[in-house]
């Protein structure tokens, strides 16, 4: 057997791949050179997960990698009909981002409940203004997205005494189906989006949806930008249909300095960083190395992406 | 038996006292008139807990209230040698502020871990700057103050995966004695003060203490202002001995616009609001009314302040 070739979509050497020396040939590609190098690769490691290059370069026929791994939770930038129809296995960085994202969401919810952005603004103005804040325990959250990220968000918020409803595509056990979303959202203090981007979820948070919410509600998106119709959210905030929102993901990233989103009242903008705690790149590298070892030994890769749905399987859904 | 007189230290009618109509005579006093009215009062309700008037007006001998209740967690503004030596029972607002304060502390810890103040600053500048943040789970906190507030802080942080050490005056069961504080603080990511203000704790967080902490540590005070030597904390932040701090309580409140604390780098200033969630005044009023009913029926009041220690008893300390 010849030494397998791992093609890395990234310009910088990825951490930890040195541990595969002698067991794999590691090559690097950028968006320009990817198409020409795919045919010779056994494995494609998508380290730069913000790129659409895979979708554009994926060969319809002919030789191609047997395994594609992306160093991200979402797989939306990868999937295309050709890849979905091919026998190639696609995996994601399950296990790396869940807890950091859940902590980030808990931090946002508490910041809103405790009026922290206003406190920082008043501090800049050297003004002492006592306000009453909101109790978090006993408040209601709807988490949209019943995958590992949504579940971890539910776990942390539940630990803070929040009543959490989890909404997935289809109802099962303790998870609500999407048909319950409007009703649950209308009674929620916090609506958190941790859903995958698919053709079904694109633009689902729009004017109609924001119109259902309570004026005291907050919306948080840590999933993918195109789930939110950004102009509708900005409008809902300006008209005070809802009390506040936080976006960590956007239609276009990075958000340019001229974007109107930067100063929408009540909108907290952060640069797609909710999952990235110190050491995250090392953890992603270690995860890939250990998955490679399984793959090279001929073992099956767990949690491969379900091509029809467009995301990895949930633990309690029969595949 | 004549109808008891409740004297309220506050200029506005307190909520809920109307429920005592016919069962008590309710009178109001301000700082100026308090001394002259104390002799005729059976009960003193200290609604304006920021006042030192009780300490100044308390009679050495002669008639005085048999019960003093303060609508606050801390009792430091009340206690004086004359009150401590008298048979008068002193109670505080146990049960009202613990959870709100603990949520507030969890919000501050997460805000620091997730670099939220900097995110808001960058948003004002319309700058997209991805940063790595800190994972909260597995980090270490020391909570100073083993009363109900400190315990609730421990419970919430523990639920977020933080390893929490609780430090009280004396070691008992799972609580560390004050002699362990230096060692624990030296290894902590978060040092939270929820201790009562007594002659023993005044000024305990000073240059010597901040010098023990890790450069990555954060200090949070939701107890009482005079526990912190404010100039020493400002100095520690300017010299980067520690990474950040949040003060919700101050030597002098309200903090004046000319205070140097407003713009110390890394210091988050909030206006003594950590425990004040919507409805708090109603809850304090209800609590007093229900305690009054016990008192009027001749039942003992639970959790009376231990005059020698200067704070209410902890559940697991024999009184």
Automatic annotation (TrEMBL), chains A, B:
List keywords of the entry alphabetically: NAD, Oxidoreductase
For the D-isomer specific 2-hydroxyacid dehydrogenase NAD-binding domain, which residue ranges apply?
Answer: 107-274
Looking up Pfam families in the UniProt record yields: 2-Hacid_dh_C
Source organism's superkingdom? Bacteria
Note whether 4Fe-4S occurs among the keywords: no
PANTHER family associated with the record:
2-HACID_DH_C DOMAIN-CONTAINING PROTEIN, D-ISOMER SPECIFIC 2-HYDROXYACID DEHYDROGENASE NAD-BINDING DOMAIN-CONTAINING PROTEIN
UniProt name for this protein: D-2-hydroxyacid dehydrogenase
- List the source organism: Streptomyces atroolivaceus
The taxonomic lineage of its organism, from the top, reads: Bacteria, Bacillati, Actinomycetota, Actinomycetes, Kitasatosporales
